[in-house]
Amino acid sequence: MTSALYECDVMHRRLKPEQKRFDYRIFMLSIDLDTIPTSTFLSHNRFNLYSLNDADHIDLGHPGGIKVNLLAWLAGQKIEVPNDVKVRLVTLPRVLGYGFNPVSFFYLNKADGTPLFAVAEVVNTYREMKLYLVDQDGAEIWKKKVAKNFYVSPFSDPGDAFDFRLGLPREEFRVTINNLTENEVTLTSTVRGSSRELTSLRLISYAFKYPLLSLKIITLIHWQALKLWLNKVRFYKKADRPEAQKEVLRPHSSISKKP
Questions:
Q1: Of the candidates 72, 69, 67, the residue with the CA atom closest to the CA atom of residue 86
Q2: How far apart are CA 28 and CA 19, in angstroms?
Q3: Quick one: pLDDT at residue 258?
Q4: Structural domain boundaries enclosing 247
Q5: Which of 34, 129, 172, 251 is packed most tightly, with the most Cβ within 10 A?
Q6: What residues contact 213, with CB distance under 8 A and at least 6 apart?
Q7: 161: which residues sit within 8 A by CB, 6+ positions away?
């Protein structure tokens, strides 16, 4: 389970109430959480050109980092894993200390490499987080339809559902996430990537090939949201449906305030 990089094409396509599509390219880290790599341009929990920070991922307050907290979350879901379980995280890095990660993926394997299941970690622009267990084996892909129960976009009902299709992170990496409204696909997002060796030379070259990566992504998200708003696509206020926002980590005050 050596760590690597994925150069990826990302596509978001809205199908209803009107069709919109935008595409962009990124790179993602693919990290073995037992041996998190560091180098001249990549650090763990320290400022650098690129960094992987525990605070950006599942944190239930347990010391020991991302893997420990992920396993604690799984235990809370009554999910048992072997003591020697291996965990790979596919995620965006922070860039010059700034990070925004709409979705990251954890892949859990037995020590011999046998896949167990995956977990999708979704984060919204309020920095709230929700984890989804994806455990239906589809041969080279983990899949599952689940209630969303999370405010991801002001143009999608938090009461919708997600349909996950998470390909295993091998030489090629393929992910599809569909937003379902009454079991109909209204928005589809895909990531298509190819593995690259994680080297300092490649990381510094990506600073020019993918400049200000995290800032670019959040800017694109807000630009597309502005265009939808100007086109008068139905807008869901975050505080309107707190009952449809369940098991949210780092909850925003709009849903965490007590009556």
A1: 67
A2: 28
A3: 46
A4: 4-256
A5: 129
A6: 26, 27, 92, 93, 95, 206
A7: 145, 146, 147, 148, 179, 180, 183
- What would you report as the CA-atom Rg of the chain, rounded to the nearest whole angstrom? 18
Q: Which two tokens stand for residue 206?
A: 């990506």
What is the DSSP code (8-state) at residue 83? T
CA distance 204 to 124: 28
* Residue 100: pLDDT band with limits 50, 70, 90: confident
CA dihedral angle for residue 166, residue 171, residue 172, residue 173, rounded to 10 degrees: 30
Determine what percent of the chain falls in helix, strand and coil, rounding each to the nearest 5.
Answer: 20, 40, 40
The b-or-e profile of 226-254 (16+ CB within 10 A means b, else e) is eebeeeebeebebeeebebbeebeebbee
Mean pLDDT of 2-31: 90
Strand partners, 43: 51
Express each pLDDT in 208-251 by its tens digit. Answer: 999 878 777 878 777 777 776 667 777 788 888 889 999 999 99
What is the rounded distance in angstroms from the CA atom of residue 193 to the CA atom of residue 48?
Answer: 24
d(CA 162, CA 147): 6
Token code pair at residue 149:
């129960």
State both tokens at 136. Answer: 């239906």
Q: pLDDT band for position 89 (50/70/90)?
A: very high
**Which of 31-35, 143-147, 235-239 bottoms out in mean pLDDT, i.e. has the lowest?**
235-239
pLDDT of residue 224: 72
Q: Number of folded domains in the chain?
A: 1
User: Tokens 């048992």 correspond to what residue?
Assistant: 80
Residue 127 binned pLDDT confidence (cut-offs 50, 70, 90): very high
